[in-house]
Design a protein that fits this description.
The protein is an all-alpha fold. It has five helices and no strands. The longest helix is centred in the N-terminal third of the chain and has 15 residues. The protein is globular.
Length: about 110
C-alpha cells in the first residue's frame, strides 16, 4: 500500500498559488501583505463569535488567500461560509478554501 504525500497544508499552499496566479478581483484587491481588510476581519470576528468558532480554526495560508480578495468579494465569501452552519464543520479552513476556489471559478 502506498501512502499519500498530500498533506492538507500542502494542498492549501498549492491552491493559494493557483489563486494568486488566476485571481482578478472584482473589487479592489487588498494590499499584498496578506493582511485582511479591516471590514473583512471584523466580519470574520463576528462570525467566530456568533458561531462559536476560533480564529485559530483558520491557518495563515487560508487567511492570506482570503486577504487576496477585495473587501466586497471577501464579505461575499464569508457570507457564503456562514450560511452553511460553520460550527458543524470539521475542517473549517478547508471549507473556506473550497468556497474561495468556487468563487474564482464562477467568474
Amino acid at each position: 500500500s502506498t501512502q499519500s504525500t498530500w498533506a492538507p497544508a500542502a494542498v492549501r499552499a498549492s491552491l493559494a498559488q493557483r489563486f494568486k496566479q488566476s485571481t482578478t478581483p472584482s473589487s479592489p484587491p487588498a494590499q499584498d501583505t496578506g493582511v485582511l481588510d479591516p471590514t473583512v476581519h471584523a466580519h470574520l470576528a463576528v462570525l467566530c463569535e456568533e458561531h462559536n468558532l476560533n480564529m485559530s480554526d483558520f491557518d495563515d495560508v487560508t487567511l492570506k488567500q482570503l486577504a487576496s480578495f477585495g473587501p466586497t468579494d471577501g464579505l461575499t465569501i464569508l457570507n457564503t461560509f456562514s450560511s452553511n452552519d460553520p460550527a458543524s464543520l470539521r475542517n473549517k479552513a478547508g471549507f473556506l478554501v473550497s468556497i474561495m476556489k468556487n468563487f474564482v471559478q464562477r467568474r
